[in-house]
Design goal:
Radius of gyration of chain B: 21 Å
Low-confidence stretches of chain B: 1-9
Helix content of chain A: 55-70%
Strand order of the largest sheet of chain B: 6-7-8-3-9-10-12-11
Largest sheet of chain A: none
Strand content of chain B: 15-25%
Structural class of chain B: alpha/beta
Largest sheet of chain B: 8 strands, mixed
Oligomer: heterodimer
Radius of gyration of chain A: 24 Å
Number of strands of chain A: 0
Distance between the termini of chain B: 27 Å
Number of helices of chain B: 11
Mean pLDDT of chain B: 84
Order of helices and strands of chain B: EEEHEEHEHHHHHEHEHEEHHEE
Distance between the termini of chain A: 44 Å
Shape of chain A: globular
Chain lengths: 323, 338
């Protein structure tokens, strides 16, 4: 038995070499079959990613490039029309995707980090420490997120980095409550006790046994929070407290002068609004689907992401369903 | 209990000696004395059983050995747990961590919930190897495959990549055993290892445990309410009632001539295949005492058919009734013939 070669780096010869590729393919297959809305969400999210990353190549005009056509309705030259300063709305929305993406991802990543740090330590250590941390979180959550961010903005000032920090703080502290709840429920499991019984240290229990078990929760918080962060950035920009004016933030495009021209040139506010709504919907759908698919108890097939069992079993399952 | 001494003819080393262990839980209804003056010992490569009905403190006693009682509400109030002479109740938490899994391993009742669902079996098997023996990840994986093969799981080197839910209940319990064996401990505490399994698998698991015990020369402490398990696999039995041992002795002696009324009742309540078929099951009348308000005298007195006046006021101590056979009862030995 000891001669059996086994390690992560040298995969079992019996397993196909393209296991990783097929795992992703299977995951996508399940996404499409079981969560079509989630698949639509993934497409929207991918579209946002591509628009954000390749904004310079895709956008037909520069982000602040003015033309002589003021407030022209959607046409061949300006797909989504132009605004009151003659800027191409389509291009600005594409550049806006980049801002939403950067702010959304960075703020959410930071927020998730705070949530896990605060929630996991609070729930795992427990006792008096937990009580103190949770009363602080209570007090924090008593103030609405948007008001809390206005307060924080007044402390940190405006700008991209400040916006990211403010949004992450506003979302992260509240999220710790969810993480704490998950940690508490995992902590009471027999396998945590079994871990103690084989001599694991507290740190090992937390990292090896508890964190992987709350991964599904964390991923869900992350994906659902991205859309919240994007909305929040839009809200702050709408209030004039997000990114400073020439930046093509979707929220900013909805506010300020745009509102004055809303009835003359509805496309100026309509398109950013629709795009914002679509992206938020898509991310929520994808987040939901991800949560379902990542749940190890709902995981079908064999192994991570439902690695495919021998072919016949699947058709057998389908047949038994059909009966 | 001073009378519970190791007889001189037995030269084997004592692995574990529990002396007057007391563990209680503070709850809103009062202090529950789950373990109340528990004493027993386990010698090298011996299989010792602890039997008793639900709630008599079997598991709490076992958990106290490894200091796994959650505090609060639980508290180990006193006594000694001597592991090769070292009092485990006094050592530092760091030393304790080094003993858990390495020198004393535990097999839990319900393997299904005792395995982490999101980690592969291989990872969980290699955990104590990495923690105690300084194995690298790949060495530990190889060793895990060997352990899994040892407990009779086919195709072990492939199956270490699988998750717990891909195994059956019996296989999961085997995996728990493999985890316990990882560091070849001196003592394995099996807390109702077969309760969650069906009868055929129970036998397999216990058979496996016995084989491995002989092979690896470990002592095993089996905690169970299943008298059948005890009869077949255990060298010595400790019968527990309301947090302490009421009778202890070699298995065949306890079965052939039990000397404590509780043991007698316990054995009489086991249905027999060779007995009359339409007979009612015999039970011990009454309920175990409230552990928050233990009586002053013998805890079993209220349910005991042989109870005397003395029983309700005075607590009986262990008395010798045969070679290695002790009981805690006042009733006249001669009259106790069944």
């Amino acid at each position: 038995m000891t001669d059996v070669k086994l390690s992560k780096s040298s995969p079992d010869p019996a397993m196909p070499t393209d296991m990783r590729g097929s795992a992703i393919r299977d995951f996508l297959g399940r996404l499409v079959r079981e969560h079509p809305m989630g698949a639509a969400g993934l497409l929207i999210t991918l579209a946002l990613l591509i628009l954000g990353i390749f904004a310079d190549l895709i956008a037909p005009f520069g982000l602040n490039e003015t033309t002589s056509n003021f407030m022209s309705p959607p046409s061949g030259a300006h797909l989504l029309g132009t605004d009151n300063l003659g800027r191409d709305v389509f291009s600005r929305i594409i550049y806006g995707a980049r801002i939403s993406l950067v702010v959304g991802l960075c703020a959410t990543a930071l927020a998730t980090f705070y949530s896990v740090l605060l929630g996991a330590t609070s729930g795992f250590i427990g006792g008096r420490f937990d009580v103190i941390v949770q009363r602080f979180v209570d007090a924090w959550m008593a103030v609405p997120a948007i008001i809390m961010s206005l307060l924080l903005i007044s402390v940190f000032g405006t700008g991209t980095i400040q916006t990211i920090i403010v949004i992450s703080l506003a979302l992260g502290v509240g999220g710790s409550r969810i993480v704490r709840g998950a940690v508490l429920s995992i902590k009471s499991n027999a396998y945590v006790e079994a871990g103690v019984a084989i001599g694991c240290s507290n740190g090992r229990i937390l990292i090896r046994h508890i964190l992987p078990n709350i991964a599904a929760t964390v991923v869900t918080i992350f994906t659902l929070r991205i859309s919240e962060a994007i909305l929040m950035e839009a809200a702050l920009s709408f209030l004039g407290l997000g990114l400073p004016p020439p930046n093509p933030s979707w929220g900013a495009m909805l506010s300020g002068t745009a509102r004055n021209y809303m009835f003359l040139a509805p496309w100026m506010v309509l398109w950013p609004g629709i795009v914002l709504m679509t992206v938020v919907w898509g991310m929520n759908m994808f987040g939901d689907a991800l949560r379902d698919l990542l749940d190890p108890k709902l995981r079908g097939g064999v192994g991570r992401f439902g690695r495919r069992a021998p072919k016949h079993t699947e058709s057998e399952v389908e047949r038994s369903h059909a009966k | 209990m001073p009378s519970n001494k190791v007889p001189s003819e037995d030269r084997r080393e004592t692995v574990l000696e529990v002396k007057d262990l007391r563990t209680s839980f503070r709850t809103s209804t009062g202090i529950i004395k789950a373990v109340n003056g528990l004493s027993y010992d386990v010698k090298t490569s011996e299989c010792v059983g602890i039997v008793g009905e639900s709630g008599c403190g079997k598991s709490a006693g076992a958990m106290s050995i490894l200091r796994l009682i959650p505090h609060p509400p639980g508290l180990i109030e006193g006594g000694e747990v001597l592991f090769f002479g070292e009092d485990l109740l006094k050592v530092t938490e760091k030393r304790m961590r080094n003993i858990r899994g390495n020198r004393i391993a535990m097999i839990f009742q319900d393997a299904t919930t005792s395995l982490n669902p999101v980690l592969t079996v291989g990872l969980q098997l290699s955990e104590s190897l990495e923690a105690h023996q300084g194995f690298s990840r790949s060495e530990a994986q190889q060793e895990s495959a060997r352990l899994l093969g040892l407990v009779g799981i086919p195709d072990a080197s492939k199956r270490i990549e699988d998750y717990p839910h891909q195994f059956s209940g019996g296989m999961q319990q085997r995996i728990m055993i493999a985890m316990a064996l990882a560091c070849t401990p001196d003592l394995i505490i099996a807390d109702e290892p077969t309760t969650a399994l069906d009868v055929t698998v129970q036998a397999q698991v216990l058979e496996l445990l016995q084989e491995l015990r002989a092979e690896l020369n470990m002592a095993v402490l089996i905690i169970t309410h299943n008298l059948g398990v005890v009869a077949r696999y255990v060298d010595r039995v400790n019968v527990m009632y309301a947090g302490s041992v009421v009778e202890t002795g070699p298995t065949d002696q306890i079965y052939a001539s039990p000397k404590h009324p509780y043991t007698i009742g316990l054995l009489a309540s086991v249905p027999r295949l060779d007995g009359p078929t339409r007979e009612n099951l015999r039970a011990i009348d009454g309920l175990p005492p409230d552990l928050a308000q233990l009586p002053e005298g013998c805890a079993f007195a209220a349910r005991c058919a042989y109870a005397m006046e003395r029983c309700s006021s005075e607590k009986p101590t262990m008395e010798k009734v045969g070679p290695e056979h002790f009981r805690a009862c006042f009733y006249d030995l001669e009259k106790l013939s069944r």
